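Morning run. Coffee first, then this:
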Amino acid sequence: MFSFNLIDEPWIPCLVRAEDTDRITPFSLSNALTQSQKIKSIIGDNPMVTVAIHRLLLAVIHQAFKGPRNSSEWKTLWEKGEFEQPKLEAYLSTHKDRFDIFDEQFPFYQTADVSVDKAVSSARLLFQDDENAALFDHTLSSHPPEILPALAARMLLVCQSFDVSGLITGENKADTATASPLCQSAVCLVRGSNLFQTLMLNLHHYSSADEEPFAFNQQEDSPAWEKAESTKSIERLPQGPIDLLTWQSRRLKLVPEKKESGEVIVKEWVKMKGNQFPKGFSLQGRETMVAFKKKEKPKPNEPAWLPVGFSKQRVLWRDSHCLLQSFAKSSRPKTINWLSDLVAEGILERSQIIPIDLFGLSTDKAKRLFWRHESLPIPLEYLDRKELVDRLLESVTKAEDVERELWSSVRYLAQTLIQFTGKRDAKDDRDKLADSMDVTSIYWSRLEALFKKLLTDLPNDQTTDEEGETVYGKQTLAEWARILMRTAEDAFQIATRSLDGSSRALKAVAIAERSFRGKLREALKGYLETDNNNATNGGTQ
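And here it is:
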């Protein structure tokens, strides 16, 4: 008989301080929660693992403490600085048999009654098969790796939250499954100074009476391990926030075996379609850790709201306003709403700057493209100051205006260069040459660190207008305009270095650059003048 119980066995990779150095040490589920104040953070094998483990821990805390039902309960938990060990241990001991990943009747995050005749290589448990790029290693399905139970447990969590859509093993034939709930989402995790604070900052108000985080029946809401029935291949709605945190999008089953040494490993597993959301269903208004954007013209049976996610073509900080405030066409994560409530009640200091980590997997239907982890420092003052977020959005919009002029000028350069060869109608050649210079990637990559500084500086740049209203960013946005101009000019210079040094190329660059500088000043008109006026007045306001 095989056994690996997550409550007792070390499987959660935690960053801890030991002998004046940080090191990653595996913790059991019980120890990670009861010693959370001593753990700096969870460091997953990849961004999806980090997210999935936090969501599991949040579900356990919600169930163990039956809340927090209001801000007062949250404050009481926060001020203790640690989770009450008796309550946690009592809850975990009550459900201990449900946390064994090899249990014969209720294997954790799996379905016992699926047939192992449908088992496939463990390489796919690592999100790796012969048809996809190697995201985690270079293992192929034809050579299944020997996965230890701790890693298998982590990947079970990931599969339920981040598996892609497409054909999947069925009972009798191939079936089609929709993507798991967090696929294509940039999942927001608010960071504290230790794991206890991180979990608390993401522990949303949980009350059916207040319909928080959304309307649900608390008697029906339960985590996957408390459900009496096995996961079915059916369409259904989430019964509540905890059901959603532990959503079983797949029917999984590990196939353990023992090596001659006695070590337990997994080389095969089963993956079938599990719970699916109805067509047209959107997680907007329910999912607490993701921001959403409203789609202009959704197709029939398509969700009207789509998650904010990662893209190779667009850096995520350009959507930072979606994380900070809800607008007509965007909705910030509900955890940020909750933090805003805590700031308004004076439980959290408005002057604080709290880092927000964003984790996610980008896919194209059944293909996994890349995973990413980004971080933004967020002054809490943004959470209830719409005028401040408006100024931040203005700064991003201005950066996008400059990018358009930069790209337009590079295309003009390419067109000029091609015309010097005698060609008059070579649109495809122009676009290929412009693309090869990769100017926009250079531009946006150089702005990231500078934008983070803008993010923290903007709340402190306050003046008062004639009507006594606070105005944000007079000096900061003027400085931002200078940064945009300098960064765009540098990007143009770097991009054009890839051209040959012929007189024809140099002449084309000179023509395009002269045009570009004029367009750049026009795009920043009003901001640079403000900066010049401040300089003339000795920087006074």
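The first strand starts at residue 12 and ends at 18. Good start to the day.
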